[in-house]
Amino acid sequence: MNKRLAVAGIVVLTAQPTYAQSSVTLYGLIDDGITYVNNVQTAGTAGRKKASQTYLASSILAGSRWGIRAVEDLGGGMRTIVVLESGWDMNTGRFQQGGDYMGRQVYIGLGNSVGTVTLGRQYDLLLDFNALTTSNPWGSGYTAHISDLDNLSGTYRVNNAIKFKTQAYHGVVFGFMYSLGGIAGDVTRNQQLAVGTTYVNGPFYGAMTYLAARNPNISVYGNTPSAGPATTNNIGATTLTGVQGNPAISGYASAHSKDIFAVGMNYKIGGGTLYANYSNVRFSGLGDTSAGPNPFGYQGTAVFNTAELDYSYYVTPAFMLGGGYVFTKGTGPNGNNAKYHQPQVTFDYFLSKRTDIYGTLIYQKATGRDSTGQQAVASITAITPSTSDRQFAAHVAIRHTF
């Protein structure tokens, strides 16, 4: 999974100047390891079958990437910022993010003492602000909320985005983002709008963000080269007999809009940090077939409420242990009422400042009926769904930054 807020250990290749403080930096990260899953769906002539799976998996704690960052000092406190960042799979050499060459981030902007404005393909404010209230800083992509439905793990980027973030003032930062849909004759179609804020005071960090997306099957889930038009379900496969994709939410591709509200905090206590967060996600206006397919004839709204509590602790300066619990409750049309329970444990051991070995264990239990109208199956994020209401995964890997 491609997510993480920063890359450590960047190497400055050029820092010579036409202007003071100008630089061009090449940086990267490699993350690869082995995943074991006890139960995944496989296709069969008579329907889905159960199988265990062991495979190499790249980008689970942090997305493998390379990037270029340029900063030019324009004088008077003004600077230009350019970022071009590409994600790729260590085991196949393929680009990630649906095949986008610069799929992780690509933007240009200006900054000064007031704030920074950037234009291009970017992370939304949910990742910028609220990810630090989750297990995101140290947990694997597998520990994300079900289907990363609130994007607190940064699975989905935003195209055509204008983003503004203020500098911190008495510990407070504000942010605004608007993504233009670009549709002739309909300025709101495929648009995204977000506002958010953070507050830092000593050991306390708090964040709150609201994001509204129109036609999410296209604007959120369909903004990569591998995605299809509105007649395609870009959220995931809803098949009742074959291998599914994101069954918790894939039945809601016909939503006219998707709204996300997230609030959370972290608090440092000695060598440990406590994390708590809550999100509310709404797929509204179901039945809009101009937005996406509606194979189950849904109308109305589907709502998901998710709560997470985590704790991480540095046993030594080089060894971290973390664990937590995520609970999601979904309600939707036709009596859909799935619940997902997910405990998780992660360790991270640093061999040096730039190389570490990590591992994670995740278990998920599902109850009720999911978005396909069937008995809910366990579906750990970024892993093929289970054939049953339970799923267990283990992953161990090595990561290097440069």
UniProtKB/TrEMBL annotation:
Any one GO molecular-function label of the UniProt entry: porin activity
Keywords: Cell outer membrane, Ion transport, Membrane, Porin, Signal, Transmembrane, Transmembrane beta strand, Transport
CDD domains in alphabetical order: gram_neg_porins
Organism per entry: Paraburkholderia dipogonis
Membrane-protein topology: Multi-pass membrane protein
Keyword Aminoacyl-tRNA synthetase: no
Stretches assigned to the Porin domain: 10-366
GO biological process: monoatomic ion transport
Subcellular location: Cell outer membrane
InterPro entries assigned to the protein according to its UniProt record, in alphabetical order: Gram-neg_bact_OMP (IPR050298), Gram_neg_porin_domain (IPR033900), Porin_dom_sf (IPR023614)
Main location: membrane
The name this protein goes by in its record: Porin
Assembly with partners or alone: Homotrimer.
Gene Ontology CC entries for this record: cell outer membrane; pore complex
Signal peptide (UniProt feature, chain positions): 1-20
Lineage: Bacteria, Pseudomonadati, Pseudomonadota, Betaproteobacteria, Burkholderiales
